[in-house]
Every structure is written in structure tokens, then in C-alpha cells.
Design a protein that fits this description.
By secondary structure, the chain is of the alpha+beta class. It folds into 2 domains: 2-126, 3-Layer(aba) Sandwich (Aminopeptidase); 132-248, Gcn5-related N-acetyltransferase (GNAT) (Aminopeptidase). It is built from 7 helices and 13 strands. Strands 1, 2, 3, 4, 5, 6, 7, 8, 9, 10, 11, 12 and 13 form a 13-stranded mixed β-sheet that branches. Strand 10 and strand 11 (216-222) form a beta hairpin. The longest helix is centred in the first third of the chain and has 16 residues, at 88-103. The radius of gyration is 19 Å and the shape is globular. The relative contact order is 0.17. The model has no long low-confidence stretch (mean pLDDT 89).
Length: 288
Amino acid sequence: MLEIRPARPGEEPRLKALWQQVFGDSDAAVEAFFRCLPADFLVVSEADQIRSMLALTPMELIGSGGTAASAWYVYALATDPACRGRGLARRLLAETDERLRRRGADCAAVVPAEPSLHDFFGSNGFEPCFAVWEREVELRLPPRVPSRLDPAAPEEYNALRNARLTELHLDWVRYDVPSIRYQQAISRLSGGDLYAVTVAGETGCAAVERTPQGGLLCKELLISAFNFREAAARIRVQCGGADLRVRTPADPRLPPNPEVRPFGMVKWYRPAGPWANIALGYLGLGFD
């Protein structure tokens, strides 16, 4: 008999085993999540076995006028390959909806790991949103103006991130410090880190990961457009990647750009309210 319930104390080894079976992440990567984030796990169990699971972590959606919405991030949705085709993930998401509504949540968000999952989450009531501007940055010259790249603690990084995004007057997601600490762990496992980047007296922030191919992925670079290329040059020179791909918020004032794409999806439990530009809102890290 199937049972949908919160994970119980002592079930962490089972959750970790299913996580690794489905996603193939290293022991260190899985341990980083459980160490850094006090997530709520919801599971489908059958015959005392966990057949499907997901994790929920809190975040806030901040409107351009400063209004905040209660949001939850749906992460690590995984079903035992031997049990697929039974609708377990759909039942888990439906139960998640009911539980989040009872908690008074305004919405849930997700970052689909691959294109096919956009259709799956779409059929479960999620809508594309949270655009990201992702581009390869061609840098053949070193920085031309004074600049620095310094490792940043999660608290410092989050303060810089919040300040930069507040200045942009768009809808954006505010994370708590444990979520940023998890991103730091992911970055460091790859050979990157969280950084404060300073160009000509202006300080922004960058979350950098090293790719398996030896390149660099800057999962977010938050600094003014005027200093963007110099900041990217400093990252490229100091971190030493073969190439550099950068994600930044989409600018709603610019015409449509093929480098701008939906990054996440959202499901509203209450009317969307003041978040009229959520399609161009900024989720940021996504832990993808």
C-alpha cells in the first residue's frame, strides 16, 4: 500500500541512496545538501521502501515594489527507476500542493533539470518564468581597470546579492543563508567558490563553478552593466578556465534576446498579485 508522508528520523540513508541512484551525484555533493540545508522531505513509501521523494526549502519572492511572497523551492524530485510509470511523482506533487496551501504558501518554484521536464511540470500546473541571460563571454585580454576577486563567506555573499538585486527593480528570489552555504559547497566541490568582485570601486558578487570540461560557469554575476566585462575578465584570469559562461538577470528594458531563456517554473497557490513581470523575474542560482 502506498503512503505519502514526511520523511521520518533515521531515513536519511534511504533518501541519500535514492538521490544517488537517480541523479548520480557524488557522496560529497549529497552530503553537502543534507549538511547545509534543513529541508523538508516528502516521500512515497511502499512496503517500508521509499519509492519517490522530493525536498522543500523556503525562499521569498520579492516584487519590484518590495512586496514579499512566501515561496518554496521543489528540489531533488526522484523516483526509483523500477517504479516509474505509476504516477508517483504526480501524486507527490499533488500532496505537496495541499501541504503548502495549508502552510499559507503563496507559490512553489522549480528548476527543471532537462527540457523534457518542462512539459512534465507544466502538466502539473507550473508555468515558465524566472528568465536568465546566459552567454559565452569571449575574453582575450586581461582586465583593463583595477579589479579584485575575493572569496566571500555565505553571509557576505547574500548581503551583496540582496543589495544588487534590490537595485534592479525586478521580481527576484531571496534565499536564506543556508541556501547560499549550499551553493558555496557545490562551487567548492567543483573547484570554484563564492566571490565578491570589485571593479573600479564597485563591488558585486559571483558564484563560480568549474565544469567537467575545464571551463567556468558563473551561475550568477551581479554587477552593473558598465563593469560587467571587466568583472568577467577578472573571473576568467583569476580562476583560469578554458572558457567562461555567465548567467545574469534579464533586462526587461531591452528587446527580446535569444540568449534570454526561461530558467525556472512557478505554481501560484494564491493570485499572482503584484508580480506582473515574473516571466522576467530572477531566480538566480537554482542549484542546477
